[in-house]
Amino acid sequence: MAESVEQLNNEGVKLFLKGNIKEAKRKYNKALEINPLYAATLNNLGMVSLQEKNFIKATNCFKNALKIKESATYFLNLGHAYVNLKEFKLAEDQYIKAIDKAPDSLMGYKSLASLYQVQKQYDESVKVWEYIITNLSHDVSFKLHLAKDYIQLKEYQFALSVLYEASKQEKQQELIWYYISLIHFNSKNFGSAIAAVKKALYIKPEELSFKSLLAAIYLGLSDFKNAMKQWDEILTIEPFNNKIRIDKAVTLLSQGLVNESLSELSLVLKNDSKNEKANYYKAIVLLEVNKLNDAISILNSIVNTKGIFKEEAEKVLNKINRKD
């Protein structure tokens, strides 16, 4: 007996969910040979195209599905395709249409809020997260998203209010305390920041981002010894974490530990010779040990590459020239 469009479509869905994209695609194409206007299969083929990162094809599949049937799911998927193409206004339009079709669509609102986040439109994303929390879901993850966006807006009291409310729930406690700590750190309430991040570390002691924040807090308190301790713990686990190693090197330099600073920078540059920040600070270290020509050579190289340290390198070179 010949297979029906519905049967082929359903077989394709099962294969897709198992990760067998190639066979799922074959089933969908076979179904469309029987009925090119079967909306569900057009949508599903669009999902395959999304998986294959063929976003133009995905867009066309979802559009064709919507010509046959206006479905909240199809609008949502078309929005995802537009996001991947960085067509953010078109994506926003599709998400709003999905919500209009299904006003209780949690995924629709979540997608819209995430889209605003990507564009750093935090005033807009805050409104959507608040709507979700008030009307659709009290899940901690949405409260964390809301708090993070308040932090981006520097609305720290609102963020703290959301986080302390979230702390009454059991899930993701370590992230709640991490963001509470981050707010206190940004507000220079270092004592409260340490207390909060230590709660996060008690729950998840190996989380490197928590250790990194604790190091930054200690640095804010000029407690270099404890900052170093945190950085060394991170570097034991991630020896090629260039950001942390450079932070350590800069701090060593500020403490007059020139050779130790140069050693750390050399480790960074051994694996990433073009790291501009490491090269800049290496030049500063070389100036400290009176290796003027080597320092000037590095600084000129930074100026010529026109990277983010170009202006800083020019300032140092100008200072050297004035001394001459």
Structure explained in plain terms:
The chain has 19 helices and no strands. Helix 4 (55-68) runs antiparallel to helix 5 (72-84). The mean pLDDT is 94. With 324 residues, the protein is an all-alpha fold.
Helical content band: over 70%
Query: What characteristic shape results from the CA principal axes?
Result: globular
Q: Number of helical segments?
A: 19
Question: What's the SSE pattern?
Answer: HHHHHHHHHHHHHHHHHHH
SSE class = mainly alpha
Rg on CA atoms, Å: 27 Å
Termini separation: 92 Å
The largest sheet is:
none
- Name the poorly predicted regions: none
**Mean pLDDT over the full residue set:** 94
The percent range for strand residues is under 5%
Strand tally is: 0
Please describe the topology of this protein:
Blueprint: H1 5-17, H2 21-34, H3 39-51, H4 55-68, H5 72-84, H6 88-101, H7 106-118, H8 122-135, H9 140-152, H10 156-166, H11 173-186, H12 190-203, H13 208-220, H14 224-237, H15 242-254, H16 258-271, H17 276-288, H18 292-305, H19 310-323
What labels would you give this structure?
324 residues, mainly alpha, 0% strand, globular
Task: Summarize it.
This protein is mainly α. The chain has helices at 5-17, 21-34, 39-51, 55-68, 72-84, 88-101, 106-118, 122-135, 140-152, 156-166, 173-186, 190-203, 208-220, 224-237, 242-254, 258-271, 276-288, 292-305, 310-323.
